[in-house]
Amino acid sequence: MATNVDVVPPPGPRPGLTRLESVDGRSFVARGPSNEQPVPGDYLEPEGEGGVLAFVEEVTGDGSAAGFSASGTLVQFGGGSGASGRPAGAPWHDVAVRPTRPDTVQHLLSAADPELHLGHLAGQDSVGVALVPNRLNRHTFWCGQSGSGKTYALGVLLERILLTTRLPIVVFDPNSDFVRLHERAVEANALQAGALGGRDVVILRPDDEQTPLRVRFTTLTSRAKAAVLRLDPIVDRAEYNALLRLFSGDFDTVDAGQILPYLRSLGDPDAEALAQRIENLGVIEWTRTWALGAVPVTDVIARRPAATVLDLGGYERPEEQLTVALAVLDDLWARRAERRPLLIVVDEAHNLCPPEPETPLGVAVRDRLIQIAAEGRKYGLWLLLSTQRPSKVHPGIVSQCDNLTLMRMNSREDLEQLASAFGFVPRGLLAQAARFRQGEALLAGGFVAMPSIVQMRTRVTPQGGTDVPVPMP
């Protein structure tokens, strides 16, 4: 007579679970049913592999019964080598994985100090994403189309730097967006606002009598002086030579009004031609640009306040903005051997470093930024370039950036350029940029632990520039 016997199923994969394979212990492919399909940026947790997460970078699948395939990188965290003691680089075969718990992801992405948090993981309010301050010693590219929250988010980063580091900042601010970086927002956290209030934040404006934004023509480099006067050393060699002789002799003044009379007193036709050029261009009339008896901006930056905001939006002429920018950049480069760290923030970077500048001043500014991008890092000069249009910034500068912040971006051309320039960013994450909500950003590079889509936190300081409202009845 037959008896009932419990049938033990043979060992093998359990149905209905996502399974992971890795041939090198670093990258992986996971396959599973459509109801368990992740999205790029998700994390999967291998069973029995403590201290290791599977970061999803690409996903293929259409939601049908055929299921999905995901690929990405295996990430160790917390200093562990995995509970199973698997040797580094050993293959993984048929390992079951499940969605990772938020607290585990938090352990990977966040620091113990909440002041370092730039925001929280999109869709997971409990998972903070922290800034890695010591990796700001790389150039950073910051971009997003109009309305994405790019400027507000950049303010968040600047606040975190001021609160958690002693890295000085200088901001080229063409739209007056950061001129309130020393103020407190109405809804700001009192402790954070108090800490920011203790930092030395200097706002320089063209029309401010107490802290004017000025430069000295006499201390500009020869190339900068020539660029201001649109002089070519070959085509305009006689006037260019007269300019060199003017500032190589005994002539030394802070009174711009003395330059023309002095040139005309020399009885030299080349000096007279130079005087006519200066007069015709109206350079002497840039009274809100030249220092005269005021402290020049280069002296202010040299003492290294916590932050120095240059309100370039206060100038009427683009040439004045470029002149101030060139004077500052040239002075920083001349002092590079001092190796004093400085974060140089260039908002609306397409204005200062386009691929093809239209004027000698524009060319000189762009070339100096290219030089700083290529060589400045070893001297402690680090760039942060912010723009709405990556394709409008010189590619030689973008290619030197190791950190990326990308906010909503619909332009296919710009997204393709970013994918090419930042090959370390998973394309599956870049592809989501067109669907980002306002304030969401893809952060990637050394200044965050892992590429992450983040909802940026609330500002402590108010934003300077605001949109003009639509008139209503």
- Estimate percent helicity: 25-40%
The class by helix and strand makeup works out as: alpha/beta
| Average predicted confidence as pLDDT | 89
Question: Total number of helical segments?
Answer: 13
Architecture (CATH level 2) name of the largest domain: 3-Layer(aba) Sandwich
- Give the CATH level 1 class of the largest domain: Alpha Beta
Characterize the largest beta sheet: strand count, sense, and whether it forms a barrel.
11 strands, mixed
Order of neighbouring strands in the sheet with most strands? 8-7-17-16-15-9-14-13-10-12-11
Order of helices and strands: EEEEEEHEEEHEHEHHHHHEHEHEHEHHEE
**DSSP strand content:** 15-25%
Shape: elongated
Uncertain stretches? 1-16
Radius of gyration computed on alpha carbons:
28 Å
Number of strands: 17
Task: List the domain count as a whole number.
Answer: 3
End-to-end span in angstroms? 93 Å
Q: Regarding quaternary structure, how should these chains be classified?
A: single chain
CATH superfamily of the largest domain: P-loop containing nucleotide triphosphate hydrolases
Query: Would you give the CATH topology of the largest domain?
Result: Rossmann fold
